[in-house]
Amino acid sequence: METEVDKEILKSSGAELLPDGRSGLRIHGWEIETLRGTILTSLAVEEWEEKLRTSHLPEMVFGENALVLKHLGSNTKIHFNAFDALAGWKQEGLPPVEVPAAAQWKFRSKPSQQVILDYDYTFTTPYCGSEVIEKDKEAVEAKANTKGEASLQWENCEDQIDLAALSLKEPILFYDEVVLYEDELADNGVSLLTVKVRVMPSSWFLLLRFWLRVDGVLMRLRETRMHYVFGKDETPTVLRENCWREATFQSLSAKGYPVDLAVYSDPSSISQRLPVIKQTTQKLKIPRKV
After folding, report:
1. pLDDT digits over 174-199, tens only?
2. How many C-beta atoms surround the C-beta of residue 203 within 10 A?
3. Which of 170, 180, 194, 278 would give a disulfide with 244, using CB separation of 3.0 to 4.6 Å?
């Protein structure tokens, strides 16, 4: 899904493609890259289940897929991957969404199996990305130390992502979308986590989206947007907006919206119909040097 860009446009924008066939580019002190691999093997599934302390994983987990944005001056890395997202799912531990009795049989792997949905089979995650500082070839996780300090910390703020600026016609220097995991909920809907990135001469922008549809029951949309404007501030600052939306099919029907599943196949087209249940805006000030 990558875009092909004229080399002259890249050069005039201060950007260059990554070498050795890698997918991404370098621009104004950032290295932005997408990684792709295959679905987890059966052995990898066992390893992940052991690490996550669970016996359940989505049908399709792309363990090698990732989006990585690295600020070269400070070795600050913002990245998105399936393992950290599933760790968030496990930690949040939401109760299972109730499935109509007539559809529960679809979750059986064997005809005689008893269906017990005692876990969050939707794999809903609060994940909004991972941050790390790489120093001396070792990754130092951005977590609080014993003194309560943190190497990287998102701060609540009143700033908003400039959507008007993002709507301006600019050359797209790089665009890609990566699937982290997906599950069809035994033909009862869809659970999908993706991340897409767009790089322009003036900024980069990304959207991490968790989309859930349990047919006839519930829709849930959790989105994280990040935006960074090149050279805008003396201190490099990334803005992050998190927005969680959710609605039952019953509540949408009561408002007069159609309940045809075909209408709800694309979250982009129906997101405004889902009420906001949580919304935050934060910023991350990136140190210039480690």
Report:
1. 999 999 999 999 888 999 999 999 99
2. 20
3. 278
Which stretches does DSSP call E strand in the chain?
A: 15-17, 23-27, 30-35, 60-61, 66-71, 76-81, 130-135, 138-141, 154-156, 174-183, 189-199, 203-214, 218-229, 237-248, 276-285
What residues have CB less than 8 Å from 201, skipping those under 6 apart?
A: 12, 13, 14, 15, 170, 171, 173, 230
Q: How far apart are CA 72 and CA 289, in angstroms?
A: 9
Displacement of CA 207 from its chain's centroid (Å)? 7
State residue 171 phi and psi, 5-degree precision: -60, 140
CA–CA separation, 180 and 249 (whole Å): 26
Mean pLDDT to the nearest integer, 201-213: 96
SS3 223: strand
Q: What is the pTM of this model?
A: 0.89
Q: Measure the CA–CA gap between 154 and 283, rounded to whole angstroms.
A: 5
Instruction: Look at the chain and count its residues.
Output: 290
What's the Cα-to-Cα distance from 123 to each of 41, 95, 212, rounded to whole Å? Answer: 19, 11, 9
Sign of the CA dihedral 65, 167, 12, 205? negative
The helix (H) or strand (E) run that includes residue 112 is: none
Q: Which residue has the tokens 């959207």?
A: 207
Given 3-state DSSP classes, what are the helix, strand and coil percentages for the chain, each rounded to the nearest 5?
A: 20, 35, 40
